[in-house]
Amino acid sequence: MRTIILKSASSYLLPVLLLFSVFILLRGHYLPGGGFVGGLVAAIAFVLDAFSNGLDKAKKILKFHPGFLMPVGLSVAFLSGISPLVFADLPMMTGIWAENPIPVIGAIGSPLFFDIGVYLVVIGSSLTIIFTISESL
Amino acid sequence: MTNDIIILPLIVHLFLSILLMFFWNKLNFQKIVSVVGNAMALGVAIWVFTYVYSSGTQVVESGDWPAPFGIVFVGDMLAVTLVLLTAITGFAVSIFSTISVIKARLKFGYFSVFHFLLLGLNGAFLTGDIFNLYVWFEIIIISSFVLISIGGEKSQLEGAVKYFALNFFASMIFLTALGVLYGLVGTLNMADISLKIAEVKDTTLVEISAVLFLVGFGIKSAIFPLYFWLPASYHTPPSAVSAIFAGLLTKVGVYALIRIFTLIYGGDSFLTILLLTLAIMTIFSGGLGAIIQNNIKKVFMYFIICHIGFMIGGLALFTEVAMAGVIFYLIHDIIIKTNLFLISGLIYRIKGTTNMKKLGGLYEHYPKLSLLIAIPLFSLIGIPPLSGYWPKISLILASFNAQEYWFFGALIFGSLITLIVIAKLWSEVFWKNQPEINFPEKFIYFNQLRFGQKLTFIFPIAFLTFVTLYIGFGAEHIQQLSERIATELMNKELYIDAVLKR
């Protein structure tokens, strides 16, 4: 699989794909996209890198075990879920939104953090699965 | 905030499972967190129970979306009672897991998944939305797949495949039933469905959806023609896992059947006949299965099936007395079945086997322990005044009054079989002299454990036995509670009014 074309393309594709995944994550509340798809795209970025440059290099870019992202993402989602209970005296999972939208990112609210949590969990779990399988090959 | 306390059990377990994932490799820490967390969850469950007991059904509209549109969590008496029972068994099993489950299993996130399972169970009991019920069922079966296959022994994987295939099939049928039902009424809120299903003219389709639900939940709760996965899989995982499966997983199916058939398809004559026939066949096949088994765990598994029949039959009778009996039996059954599997785990630890032919002399060497074990066994049979006795009165009375003599006979047959099998088990395991067999050498026997480690085996059993004793001797309280739940179930307007705020 290690052709020169794939190798040079992947070094450009990695940042582009990661940026694209964040774009999909942010537009996800009203438009197609969201944490799940964004997370998959981000995972694909790393998988592509692992294909072209080898598993060890991809792991080096990531710096920590991808499995760690699962509890982190889950806690982000969990906190966003219970935040209305804590801050606003509303039932669980109610969306709390900031009044003024921020440029580029758009409106900020607890559903965004929920999506970020999903994003991290999806990256973590899919990379853990794929890395574990390719290690055992 | 005060209305929202019924979702606290969910929040506690979700928090614990996430916390445990952070400490993936620190097993001792995980054990402590899990036990302390389950004690906390027990406290929360008691709080929720007393709150709902004193101030009536609580409804939480998650996401602040009003009732027929958003997902609601409904804490009526039935739901919070089951949440309390889940907390009690979860607490006992988490203590039992600390030493009895080997490290090779614990290190794959056993405790984290265990809390996800409890989360799913609590969610299934509390939700008031039928699609959300499906989602909780998925959480339950995904976590139970992990628990049943963790460790990866050959026999275990064989059991897991059977369990996986049939439960997945059950979920598929459940989803199909949901689709049919949604096509008929156009809503997923159970209270709203209950109102709108009365207006549906096409009764054939309504009955089709009812039968689909029956098949889906029937597989999960192991009723007559659909129970074969249970004896094939429940004995393979460690006893702690079998205990939580036996106590709660099949009962979730029973809970769903009770909820659906009281709230949505109440008192349909076709379903009554169908349920009653299935109940009688379940009692017979479970009882006859139990009598020929020699492995203690397998005997207990067939008892699960046999006693599911009692509850399904009571549900089919559809009177308030029968329903009180069903609820009382459910309460008794969850505690007792969990305890039986913990006991089988203890016997395995003492002797290294659960085969009755190879066991013996337990009373001679462990007299106090044997007396402790005798209490749940006698309660299972229903010797007065222990806990199994009281619900059977209600069930037998209701079946006699309804002139359902076949079910009446099946109840007596089921009790008799239980008595015979337990008598056989007692004489084989406890009174018979230890036969000459070769004990496995590489095995940590019970008497080689330290005192604290022994306590993790005995304390959960003693705790659950104490609860059983309370159910038996404090039967008045439990009967009152069951009657109250039965009244709530039979008058579905109470549930609908609470959810839709009419």
Topology:
The complex is a heterodimer of chains A (137) and B (502).
Chain A: H1 4-27, H2 35-53, H3 55-62, H4 69-88, H5 110-136
Chain B: H1 8-22, H2 27-55, E1 58-61, E2 72-75, H3 77-100, H4 103-106, H5 110-126, H6 130-149, H7 154-185, H8 190-196, H9 203-221, H10 229-233, H11 239-263, H12 269-292, H13 296-317, H14 320-351, H15 362-365, H16 367-381, H17 389-401, H18 405-431, H19 451-473, H20 475-490, H21 492-500
Antiparallel strand pairs in B: 1-2
> What is the β-strand count of chain A?
0
Query: What is the residue-mean pLDDT of chain A, rounded to a whole number?
Result: 88
Number of domains of chain B: 1
Instruction: Please give the share of residues in helix of chain B.
Output: over 70%
Number of strands of chain B: 2
The gist of it:
Chain A has 137 residues and is an all-alpha fold. Helix content of chain A is 72%, strand content 0%.
Polypeptide structure, described:
The complex is a heterodimer of chains A (137) and B (502). Chain A has one domain. Chain A is 72% helix and 0% strand. In chain A, helix 2 packs parallel to helix 5. Chain A starts with a helix and ends with a helix. The model of chain A has no long low-confidence stretch (mean pLDDT 88). Chain B has one domain. Chain B is 76% helix and 2% strand. In chain B, helix 12 packs parallel to helix 18, helix 14 runs antiparallel to helix 19 and helix 14 packs across helix 20. Classes of the chains: A mainly alpha (137), B mainly alpha (502). Chains A and B meet through helix 4 of A and helix 1 of B.
